[in-house]
Amino acid sequence: MRATTSNGVKSFLDAPLVVELGSRIAVGAAGSLAAQFGATVLCIEPKENHGRGKWRNRPFAMAGKSSIVIDGNDAGDRVLLERLTAAADILLLSTDVDGNDALWTGDHPDRQIVCDITAFGHTGPMAGKPMSEALVGALAGTLDTTGERDASPAFIGAPILEMSSATFATAAILAAMRVQRLHGIGQRIDVAVFDVAVTGLITFLPLYLTGREATRSGNGHPLLAPWGVYRARDGWIVICAPADSHWSRVCALMGKPELAHDIRFSSPLGRLENRRLIDELMSQWVGTLSIAQCESELMRVGVACGPIVDVHELAAQPNLVHRKSIQFIVDPQSGSTIQVAASPIRGDCVTAVPLAVIPVPDADRERFTRLLQTAATTDRQKVEGRPELPSPCAGIRIVEIGHYTVAPMAGRMLGALGADVIKIESPEGDAIRKTAPLRSDGASYIFALSNTDKRGMVLNLARKDDCDTLDRLLRTADVLLENLKPGSLGKLGFGSQQLKVRHPHLVYCAVNGFGTDSVYATRMALDTVIQAMSGLMALTRSNGTPTKTGISISDNLGGQFGLIAILAGLEYRDRTGEAVHFDLSMQDTTLWATQFAWNQTKEADPGPMLIPASDGYVVCEAPIAAIHLQLVRAGYSIANGIVNATRDEVLGALDQFPIAPCLTVAEVFKHPQVAVRELLLNRPAPGQDSWLVFQPPFKLLSTPVVVRSVMSQLGHDYAIPKAAETGEK
């Protein structure tokens, strides 16, 4: 049922009706993204706000949506809900915390898409357990990887696992809509927060596979130094200077140029082994300066840095102001003006719809009741069990000019969705090919993990003939995806305006730290710097110090939104004939993931408590007094903050409360839930042994996502697609 039309306003989607029932934060965020893409999102509100999940922050949950309040004890409301769910094009559920299992297991209208976001998905020994983000993070390793090495793990201050689950759910829905449009069927989508968390451990899997310790390292980098957070006179600043040239420049700024040649610090390995001494030297220097002075000096010599921006300072952050990354909306219930993140999806010919209004509860009952009177009745039937269908992105060609992990993440997800992804590398190869740890054959684990389901081509774009080859290839492509320094492709003749003229059919997606339209056009952008300048590090503390997440969440979110933008751009192009050019900023995407912490109206009750046991940590959601009382009753004492019991004993003593062990990365990768969900797969690479790689963390049950292969060594079996030789797709 189409609830509205666009009335001449451009939007990515042609006003499908989304009925949002789930109370998980991820469901609320996925519904918001759908509304920003042009869907009509009807959110079903409970009669009483119980303050759990997304309802801890109603302005976040409801901005840009319609509202109907359903009383489950009212027979008329139950009939209304049944009719609404039958009429929906898309259902958003979280059955583990809300029930509504029949909406997942039962028959559906033929074209309906049903997306269920749960803690653990619908398979495996943990299936159906309604755990919170904190407990899932404990079981999935994100807790153990965040915080200082010699301190307790630190809880992340924003629900990034739920927000990341929303992005993957949105991508899966867009892929399912493509299948729906091309083949006339809907399907069910299974997204697990646990799966999203585990596959976010991409930088830790290589350490685990090579027998190294894979755990938290505070604000440091496990392989590079200096890299950390330092206190200036008026606050905290992140500084990342891992290369020899960067370290030399920092030494000169400190007035100690001789340190660049000191045997202790002259090599990356030496700096890593002496990182504590380097941090002392850096702290002494930074402590004499203001943040502005330190930032100015470091940026002048090209060293990556950024201030720790508090949440209340985000609205004044220069680049966020320039990009209009924050919206201000009046909350009709409180009368106050609240902040919500604008969509990170910025396109040229079409962009996201602003979330302009927060509805009062039940504001849209009459409108949707009238619409139901004219809605056609659709027979319900199973959507699985059909003849085999092509993959969602079959027939789509992606050209990726990406390095490290951001654009390559989007590329590998598109490859698993069936697209033909061609990765362009220079003769030296993607720099991440040299990133340790390496296998005995010299191949990089992190490169393999970041580059599945892609073909390769080596081009030296400093040469005209190779630029001509790229130009011919782009004639055959649907999408150009890149994460180079802003303006780099323009200098080579492949900027946005040049592509519009030569390749008007081409969807173009640029992802970088601060956006192409930015006040920081030349500023170096690394994951830690972006976390600092988006509010996330200020929300996450270890012993009072702002702390980055263990997983590289800003890199991950940049790739996830690149994936979403491309899928939305393809839908818009195929519907209108107009190709979108996207300008994505990792600062915007990370800011988007922090917004749930901005305007919370109700705190989690009770919040998660970290309990040190004799062999690790346990997370329990209960009042501290109740926890202590129960432990004493079970016969355990607490000395120096540590319970004289193992994790398993603590779990047994407190099993009446929501509880989970804090697993190490090694324990996570051996967990039976990981095996049953097939989150880790052995896949071949041409000319090499097979690799252990990640499965994408979303399941389309009618058109499965399939990881088939890993890219080979540079220059091995690289060839231009035959169609590109003639410039035809």
Rg over CA atoms, rounded to whole Å, is 25 Å
**Could you tell me how far the N terminus lies from the C terminus, measured between alpha carbons in angstroms?**
35 Å
Mean of pLDDT: 92
State the CATH class of the largest domain.
Alpha Beta
Quick one: biggest sheet?
7 strands, mixed
Q: In which range does the helix fraction lie?
A: 25-40%
CATH-assigned homologous superfamily of the largest domain: Crotonobetainyl-coa:carnitine coa-transferase, domain 1
The helix tally amounts to 29
What is the correct CATH architecture of the largest domain? 3-Layer(aba) Sandwich
The strand count comes to: 29
Structural class of the secondary structure composition? alpha/beta
Task: Name the shape in a single word.
Answer: globular
Query: How many domains is the backbone divided into?
Result: 4
Q: What amount of the residues lies in strands?
A: 15-25%
Written account of the structure:
The structure is a single chain. Helix 1 packs across helix 7, helix 7 packs across helix 8 and helix 16 crosses helix 23. The strands form nine sheets. This protein has a seven-stranded mixed β-sheet, sandwiched between helices. The chain is globular, with a radius of gyration of 25 Å. The model has no long low-confidence stretch (mean pLDDT 92). It is an alpha/beta fold and 729 residues long. The chain folds into four domains: 216 residues, Rossmann fold (3-Layer(aba) Sandwich); 61 residues, no CATH class; 229 residues, Rossmann fold (3-Layer(aba) Sandwich); 65 residues, no CATH class. It contains 29 helices and 29 strands.
